[in-house]
Structure formats: structure tokens, C-alpha cells
Predict the structure.
Amino acid sequence: MGSNILAINPGATSTKIGLFKDEEIVFKESITYSLAELKDYANINDQYELRLGSILETLKKHNVDTKVLDAVVGRGGLLPPVKSGAYEVNQDMLDCLKYSPVLEHASNLGAPLAKGITEMAKDGCRAFIYDPVTVDEFTDIARISGLNGLERKSIGHALNMRSVAIKVAKEMGDSYYNKNFVVAHLGGGSTVSAHQKGRMIDLISDDEGPLSTERTGGLPIKEVINLCYEKSKEEMYALYRKKGGLISYLNTNDAIEIEERIDNGDQKAELILQALAYQSSKAIGELAAVLKGDIDGVIITGGLAHSNRITEWIESHVGFLAPVVIVPGENELEALAMGAKRVITNEEKANIFEMVH
């Protein structure tokens, strides 16, 4: 018979959905919303009915009846720190995402949308989230920042990074829980993580590590302190998160355009793109030390992993550590669906989220 799993990934101006039958994709679609459509909604939660309706319309367009679904899995929202894996959607989770999320974010709708669809599905259809952004399996020592009272936090691309590590381990003929990897997710924001026998024990977040297409990564703090007195908090946040990285140096976040400029002899473009690869390699080396050099593979993923230039530059720096495996793209719908499948086939057990009152 096989299992039918619907994956839902809400973004700022889109909802991506994918229907999977076992491990095969039946269809994927990105439902987009104009800024005009969204402007009258005061917050993310108010968009629930709009997004639920558009998902149902898309399923109807593809002649999919909700009654065939065995599971619906949504992108995990900004919950308090949780361990990795699947979580069954429950009332505590829904209340937390609605009334006290860590941050306002479109992914906070992943759980309620999954729950809403299951209520229209057949008996026994289950609602999950999988590997939310706030997955935290840090060791105690990894939390120490250098300033008492200021902890390092585990916030990054956990969903894609764990998914590609699980996939690569399987391709090696083994379990993720027997392997050690360093995984670099390179894109609009870049995060690099250390995976030790099934736990993501450390992570270099997008404000600590390499520059990316839009974010600065780690900066010389003495200079940043001076800059803070020249600009507002909002301006500083925009500089680090939206106007840094490749945009800051080259006025574009489009890696394809930058590669074309390099092909046409633009030496500055080549230097900056090389710097992105160089800094990414340094972060990989830092986490290789966390794993004491006991590494089964270095995995490069995310949108920038499509660039042969970038991946070849990184491999030239870190190839001595372990085999380098390239898994381009984000593959988040597949990651969600395969996580849910592992639960309903009893390969994994779903966790229960409990809100701390």
C-alpha cells in the first residue's frame, strides 16, 4: 500500500508543500502570496486560514483527497530549545507557537497547518513537526561564549543538516548514529555543525561563522562596537543580516551572477567568493577539532553547494580531514517527509513537547 505523507514548509511569502508516497515525490508546489495579500494581517497567526485554504485548493488541483493521508508534517517553528527528531503536534505546542514563540516567524504555522489538515484526513492520520530551527543538543562546554551570562545558542539549519547527514550515512551503508560528520549549510545564511553519533553537539551559527550571500558572519568585535555608536539597533541588525556578505562587497546576493563576473575577469568578485569558501573551510576545521579529528565525512549542502567553484575551493582546504560529500540545495520538504515516514514505520519514536509553565 505505502504511506502518503504531506509536507508543509511555510515561508515569509510562500507555503511550499509536497506529497510523498513512501520515499517517492508525487508532486511539489510553492504557493506564493503577494505583499498586498499579506499586508492586512497583523501577525503570522492571522494568516492561518489563508494558508490552510491555499493548501486545500492545491491538493484539489492535484486531485488529492485529504482522506488518503497517513501523516502531515510541518516545518518546526520557533519553540524553546528541543532535542532533535519528530514531535507529535499537541495542544502545548500549538499554544506555545501561538502565544509565546521564541520569535515571530512563518514556520510557527507549520504545526497548526499540519494539525488542521489531519482533522480533515482519515482516522489515524498523525500530525508532526521535525527538527525545528531550535534543535539544541549542545554539550555544556559548547555553550560557553566568553562572557558570563551570554550563552552560545543552537539556532541554525538543523532540518537540512541532519537530513543530509542521515542520507550520507545510509549511502555509506551505515546508521547516522554510528557516524561523525561536519556539515556546512551554505546559503543566504550559513551554519556549520558537528554531528557525533547521532547528536548535533556543536554549531557555528550565521552570526559567528563564515560570511554568506547576505550575512556578515563573525566580525571583529572592536570595530563593531564603534559602529554601534554610529548606527541604530535596526540599522545594525539590517547590516549584519540583510546587507552583509556578498551583497556588502559586490552589491548582489546572486552567486550565478558573481561567477559570471569572475568568468569575465572580475578579480574582486573572485577574491570575495574565495573568501566565502575560505571562511567556510575555517569553520569546518574548527568543528573538526571538536570531533578530535574523528570524522567520517565533511558534507557541503545548501544553495551555494550548487557552485563547483565554491565546493572545489573548500575541498582543497579540508579534503585532508575526511571525504567531502556534496549534497546541493535545501531539500526541506523531503527532510520533513522522510522524518515523518521514519516515525510511522517505527524506525523512530516521536517526542512529546511539553511547555514549561
Observations:
- The first strand starts at residue 4 and ends at 10.
